[in-house]
User: What shape does this take?
Amino acid sequence: MSSKKNFYSSIYKEPGPKLDRVSPFESMMERFRFAAETLNLDEGLFKYLASPEKQITVSIPVIMDNGNIEVFEGYRVIHDNVLGPSKGGVRYSPDVNIEEVKALAAWMTWKCAVVNVPFGGAKGGIRCNPAELSQGELERLTRRYTANLLGIFGPDRDIPAPDMNTNEQVMAWIMDTYSMNSQKTEMAVVTGKPVILGGSQGRKEATGRGVVTVTLAALSKLGIMPNKVSIAVQGFGNVGTVSAQLMYEQGAKIIAISDITGGYYNKNGINIPEAIQYMRNNNNVLEGYPDAEKITNKELLELECDVLIPAAKEDQIDHTNADKIKAKIISEGANGPVTASADAILEEKGVMVIPDILANAGGVTVSYFEWVQDRQGYFWTEERVNRRLNRMMRNAFDNVFGVSENYKITLRQAAYVYSINRVATTLKMRGIYA
Ligand code: GLU
Assistant: This one.
């Protein structure tokens, strides 16, 4: 091992014995180390980019509907602001923790760099179970979290957005709380807002739309027609429904979908508009969906199909099930659905993985459009948003594909090499402020 390689691996090693499940941050670092070696990255720049700039934990007291005070823990991690103000979503979930948020913040840095939007990376979260909170409790929780981070957020500093279990309404509360404190309306402080208060047309569908753009690009590289493919989609939230719907419109056969209630399989294809309608009329779950056989989320991943779109959450495909994957293409709608320990197995099997930092970058791309529109006070048509999104995603795919051919590496490795090179080159030019 070269001394540089030794150096890279000495920076951030997961504490304690190597467990079966590595932390998402370690998964991110493993890929970062590979890209650093490929680029022969300066050791100082490596250390800089391996260390998040700020990690903030806040406690958030909330008066619950029953009059009691409950205290929640919230996080915001700014990975860096080399390319511009930091950008990234806020997730509400009972198991969110600082390690996860750290990984997700770094992923945002690489994601923004892959699609060439001028943002650094950040992520936030609140450890809570939103399903158990009333609308009023959610509002008070969101406003107090925002108030605790007033010195961090800002249209030129750090710009939150939706993520798991947060939506347009939550963004509206963040925008309003920040604006009330600045005594002026600051639309550009947050993206993913309702269109009526400065959100962008097409933002809600943007992540799924981007997944489809890169999936179509990958299919065309393999010479496969979209109307000839079978697809399994894990997760039927915002990203999963839009990806399934748009691929369905392309004539693809969606043979399985899933949500927290399990997987639904029909080898002849599921009618996606009907399934979406069913879910809307059924408390937002697929439970009892009639036109399919019930399977588990795990079984869905292992189905015989051409394209697999994991659009649920992290760590779904690891070294224990990677060799059972039969898809030709995995298009990562979620952040981190494949662990670093599964990468080599999938590569060996010849599965083409379109990595999360590329595949799901449509969301932050339209967030960038939203931020631009808010700052100009001039709003685009949905057609313009979609056209520009499509172009940026297609360019990003081609750039990453080109790097993968040049270096003879996977698309994931290429996406890291491309984005880390971009961030490191910018950082070198900016220099270190002393
Ligand atoms: N939460 C989304 C993501 O993981 C969007 C982030 C943003 O738009 O800032 O990419």
Summary: The pocket of glutamic acid is lined by residues 87-89, 111, 161, 163, 191, 335, 360, 363-364, 367 (CB under 6 Å).
